[in-house]
Amino acid sequence: MNTPNKLTLARMIATPIFMAVMLINFDFHYLISLFLFIAASLTDMIDGKMARKYNMVTDFGKFMDPLADKMLTTSAYLGFMFIYGGTQYAWHIVVITFIVLFREFAVSSIRLVAVTAGGKVVAANMWGKCKTVSQMAGIILALAVYAADEIFTLPGDFIVIADIAIVVLFWISAILCVISGVIYIWGGREYIKNAK
To answer: Which domain holds residue 94?
Structure first.
């Protein structure tokens, strides 16, 4: 197994650790989860660049790298469902999480059909990458705000404004999820049509 694929597996292994740290209430758990999420996100950038630069692109990497991204980001959204539960933003987070999960299941299904029906591994496209970057940016902002609140006890007005900005970023990610999902489904229509 080459180094980029090892980094992908490391991201997958880090995901449940990140989610546990995010949700278990102890001193500075948001700060630690922020660092874990950033470290895991960096492996996504590094493994792709390394695979392309050193000609180490594999079918395993094409399939597992986006899957590892999905695991990491959806675990964060599920965590935010818990964190925002009972607040005025709860329904936003629930709907956004549903959109994200629906898209990820749909796209993963298309990719599986493409492999079994046509022997083709569908790699992530530009829209999918934009979606992932926007998700990671929103999640990092949210974790950074809550980490800063743990350390400095931020004013309530600031938290309200930050929460609005976080929800807006999450909605932008959800819209990109829909756009990239439709593009994946449209691109995989031949595989769906020819599936047995």
So the answer is: 3-194
